[in-house]
Description:
Blueprint: H1 3-27, H2 36-48, H3 52-71, H4 77-97, H5 107-127, H6 135-145, H7 150-168, H8 171-193, E1 198-204, H9 208-219, E2 224-229, E3 236-244, H10 249-259, E4 264-270, H11 280-287
Antiparallel strand pairs: 1-3, 1-4, 2-3
Helix pairs in contact: 1-4, 1-5, 2-3, 2-7, 3-4, 3-6, 5-8, 6-7, 7-8, 9-10
Amino acid sequence: MSKQTVYNYIAITIGSLLTAVGLVVFLIPNKIASGGISGLATILHYIFDWRVGRTILIINIPLFLIGLRSLGTKFGIRTLYGILALSLSTDLLEGYCSGLPTLTTDPLLASIYGGGIVGLGLGLVIRAEGTTGGTDLVAQIVNKYTRISVGKGLLVVDFCVIAIAGIAFNAEIALYALISLFITSRVIDLVQEGFNISKATFIISDESDEIRKTIINQLNRGVTILEGRGGFTCHNKEILLSIINRSEISDIKRIVQEIDDDAFVIITEAHEVLGEGFDETQLKEKEI
């Protein structure tokens, strides 16, 4: 077993534990069923007094078997491990926290913090090329037999769970569940794309050569020259592309303004930049 595989299983374990913390500490005590199998298990917990972790496992087993048959072995050992890790973590934490007071009874706070922690946990699991089963399996199975995309399938399944929560509890709780679901999805994206968001700058100027040299000399950043053509004038233009950190935005604006006040500058976000001067550790991890 390679080091990367070991790291992935450790990440799946930590991610599953964090997901269980978000569920047990914040979402379940406040009846917030923010979609997914865990949301459905939360509803069943309050209707039939079933253990949430055990219910997650019971619902996921047939989904896992169907997914294994329909989608192949790529949903094999890591999926099974993720399902077991989340189920066991949830039940263990639920038993441990049963005698402790609820951290918050404010549904808004529970939605925000619970959704954020669950998103962080699931993001770690997905980043480690794992899954905790659930609605993503349902969505991909539906996608194979219908024209519904995986993204739309996830949205439909989660919406159905939240609608059931609205019927089982009340409409207000369902609205809080939507907030939690939105936060979870955003945090998952942040974990996947990286927290260290760099900036990509595109500079169009008649003084591109001087700007390029100044960026290289003063900021010690590389510059890529792209060939462009004006749509109105049909004149050929050089477009400078440079990736910088947030702290260098004001510096690059100053440089461009000092050299060419009429330059056209676009600054946009660049998630998870890998390479020299940025996050080289992830490149090394991928080479293992």
